[in-house]
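Figure S7 source data.
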Amino acid sequence: MLTNDQLDQWDRENFFHPSTHLAQHARGESPNRIVKTASGVYIEDRDGNKLLDAFAGLYCVNVGYGRQEIAEAIADQARELAYYHAYVGHGTEASITLAKMVLDRAPANMSKVYFGLGGSDANETNIKLVWYYNNILGRPEKKKIISRWRGYHGSGLMTGSLTGLATFHNKFDLPLSQVIHTEAPYYLRRPRKDMSEAEFVRHCVAELEALIAREGADTIAAFIGEPILGTGGIVPPPAGYWAAIQAVLHKHDILLIADEVVTGFGRLGTMMGSDHYGMRPDIITIAKGLTSAYAPLSGSIIGEKMWSVLEQGTDENGPIGHGWTYSAHPIGAAAGIANLKLIDSLGLVENAGSVGAYLNAQMQAAVGDHLNVGEVRGEGMLCAVELVKDRNATEFFDASEKVAPRIVGEMAKAGVIARAMPQGDIIGFAPPLCLTKAEADIVVEKTASALKSVLG
Ligand code: PMP
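Tokens for the predicted 4'-deoxy-4'-aminopyridoxal-5'-phosphate complex:
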């Protein structure tokens, strides 16, 4: 077996890590955790440290680690048929079965599922389909996509543009010109402190209306949003936000894409986040929780309204010129089937609701009154603690102080993994949906003690 030193050297010499400070990593200044194995909510690294993973990888290992049922399903599929493509009407039992299982769990009026590999490529598919749709309808000018500041939709060319976070744009010549951004429904960071939630919703709507008026509704194809902002800070929308936004979209014939890469398959305590917030999307993006990351697989669930137009398009133009070699990969599909069965048989959607509410309530009780906690917020099995310099003035820390990364670092030393979200001092939690109350207690206790050791 390779020694840890050997692996560390090869890693720094050969491996280009995503979302990593490249120079610091090469110099050996950044942490380098080499993960060896995992079970339940715990991961174990090569140095023998066991850590409670309160972020489920990248909020994706929803059923927890080490599920033998999924491992067996993957192995069986690999032995029987590791691969066949899905072009020109080909399929496998696994991909066809999973498509039915996904549709059975989707909101009403959804028609078909296209399978990809990850959330980014699924959103690329969505935007292409929206453009195709408007071309078939004879509206070639109706192409721009509205996204929110702090939305996260991937890091490709189009999806990195949709993402409303500066680090995903800087030095990459993004966003592309077809993408326009609007206000995030982020009540803590509202423009005026005396705004009520209802006033803030009206403000978000007014901003959207103004953007549409400026650009022209006949140039705007779709609005994309996560039911609850994820990577942008784990921020539930204020009450009434989605109903008010949807009314505007409806008025201007703008499609709604619900990016459910994080919220799909139970994380909010409902099967889909759209159900939770009464959203009626035209397309839904799914990934992460579809296979609990046991194999890469994503999907675009297409609503009936769009599907009939897409079909009409192929009658006019021939087969749709869109597809990946690995679309509907049978191993991913086998993992997806076993994963969705486990979510049902273990009651994980319900557990996400009940233990998630417990985690949020305990976190609020433990750190909510701390002078540097601006807000404890969450929904289902998502929770965030936002740190502020002064809670009365809602003054934020300077990024150079690295307050959240320092707290998260202390937590890791104490055996709990949380995530310092990329913009602002926000500690994020998105544990596997199988978290128990006793495990939630550990997460809360380690958060409170790390907060105390860094900020007093
Ligand atoms: N959409 C959302 C809401 C996400 O959170 C993510 C990933 N964090 C993506 C899309 C992109 O998915 P991937 O990293 O699998 O490309």
